[in-house]
Amino acid sequence: MRIVLGVSGGIAAYKAASLLRLLTEAGHEVTVVPTDAALHFVGAPTWEALSGRPVQTDVWTSITEVPHVRLGQQADLVLVAPATADLLAKAAHGLAGDLLTNVLLTARCPVVLAPAMHTEMWDHAATRANVATLRERGVHVIEPASGRLTGADTGPGRLPEPEHIRDEALRVARVAAEGGAGADLAGRRVLITAGGTREPLDPVRYLGNQSSGKQGFALASAAAARGASVLLVSGATTIVPPPGVEVIPVQTALDMRDAVEAHFDQIDVLVMAAAVADFRPAEYVDTKIKKTHDPANPDAAPTITLVRNPDILADSVARRGSGRTPLIVGFAAETGDDRGSVLDHGREKFERKGSDLLVVNEVGVGVTFGQDSSTVHILRRPEAPGEPAPVTTVGPAPKSEIAEAVWDAVLHEL
Ligand code: CTP
Q1: Which of 131, 151, 240, 334 has the fewest CB atoms within 10 Å distance of its CB?
Q2: pLDDT in tens, 315-370
Q3: What is the DSSP string of 111-162?
Q4: Does residue 49 fall inside a structural domain?
């Protein structure tokens, strides 16, 4: 996709460098159009090096190529991050004093603005009116995040994380390209589990796993953007949750089970993307286990006995019984071995778990876990009993794209 990334002059301009990276790594052709003010924060060489393209701010350079018209006309998406109060005002009033504002006037593609400013400026009647005007005209203005601003102040006005801006902007472009309705999950309540559980052994140690939570968070972000009301039951992760998503942080498999059970009767879709520990230490020791834990035998290592955790997915299928609500989506982490391929093991797990869909991931060192992209096979129930489960393969693709494909499959089932 051809993307124009506009950058206006706010301190959050530095975050646009990460956003640019995410977009180019996903294979998009990105031309950066900063304003003069933006160059006070991040210089042209940074944008040129990261995009691999020349950068200009005015309409007087390369004049024979008419860049102020061509860039906007040829783009598939114009994204401005950060969009300052000044940029929003200029865009709302159709001013065209520099290259970026010209691009905004000539663009015929989706336009997404990610505002960032102090809370007082965001709340000001002039800014509110400008945002309302832009939204009425079909411009997609992302809600700013809440949190620490440039000084000691906090409140709404922060630029959302680059991953969220990327996901939302690409979704807007995709929906526009498909001529679709966009909010196709509106009115649906979904619960997504994400990340890995931690099973404590003593106050300083736990059994954990490699899950980063990225796929679960991408699913939450995509569902919220498509209009669902989203509960995200998340194991330990460092990812900032997407805006508009209610997060229930949990630690252990038992906590996760309790959170799923507490909401089970109010949801339309359950997506078990979490890497739930199958076992936990049989005993939690509430003081640190010392190296010399047995004075009679100072060199001995302790033996840890494990017990089975509940299988939340299988229990959810059993609890639902013969109905179809909630729709249940399982994930499978498979490596493939001499007994079968990733897909063979996936099909076997699909039978065993009984979910409506199973998203089979190939995992291993450097594959899927912690990565931004992966390949999945989405298995669904056959039309007639006895037929093999139909499968859709997606990827290698960014986890945000995989998330969209999973929701497409969910909608098909719903
Ligand atoms: N799952 C669960 N509760 C568990 C273990 C897994 O709900 N105690 C869910 C996961 O969230 C995922 C699916 O079951 O949706 C498959 O997880 P996976 O680890 O691939 O499968 P296991 O059932 O643990 O099987 P195995 O370890 O033998 O591959």
Answers
A1: 151
A2: 999 999 888 899 999 999 888 888 888 899 999 999 888 999 999 988 865 555 66
A3: EEEEE---HHHHHSHHHHHHHHHHHHTT-EEPPPEEEE-SSS-EEEEEPPPH
A4: yes
Residues 118 and 242 in one domain: no
> Which CATH number does the domain housing residue 81 bear?
3.40.50.1950
Whether 183 is covered by a domain: the verdict is no
The amino acid occupying position 382 is P
Ligand 1 atom closest to Cα of residue 330: 15
Task: Please state, in angstroms and rounded to a whole number, the distance separating the CA atoms of residues 388 and 177.
Answer: 33
Place of tokens 């691999």: 52
- What is the whole-number distance in angstroms between the Cα of residue 243 and the centre of ligand 1? 28
Span from the CA of 331 to the centroid of ligand 1 (angstroms): 7
Pocket of ligand 1 contains residue 51 by CB under 6 Å = no
Q: Which domain holds residue 396?
A: 189-413
Residue 308 to residues 149, 164, 173, 205, 279: CA-CA distances in angstroms? 45, 36, 45, 19, 4
User: Which of 137, 158, 178 marks a domain boundary?
Assistant: 178
Q: Output the CA 56–ligand 1 centroid distance in Å.
A: 51
Q: Are 167 and 201 within one domain?
A: no
184 assigned to some structural domain = no
**Residues 303, 361: contact at Cβ < 8 Å?**
no
What pLDDT shows up at residue 182? 67
Q: What is the distance between the alpha carbons of residues 32 and 35, in angstroms, rounded to a whole number?
A: 10
Binding site membership of 313 for ligand 1 (Cβ less than 6 Å): yes
Give nearest CA residue, ligand 1 atom 28: 349
Is-contact 331 358, C-beta < 8 A? yes
Task: Based on the fold, state whether residues 155 and 301 are members of the same structural domain.
Answer: no
pLDDT in tens, 143-164: 898 877 777 777 788 999 999 8
Question: What pTM was estimated for this model as a whole?
Answer: 0.72
Q: Is 202 exposed, middle or buried (0-12, 13-18, 19+ CB in 10 A)?
A: middle
Atom of ligand 1 nearest to the CA of 312: 7
Domain count, the chain: 2
- Nearest CA to 75 out of 179, 172, 181 is that of 172
Which amino acid, 135?
Answer: R
Q: How far is the C-alpha of 219 from the C-alpha of 230, rounded, in Å?
A: 10
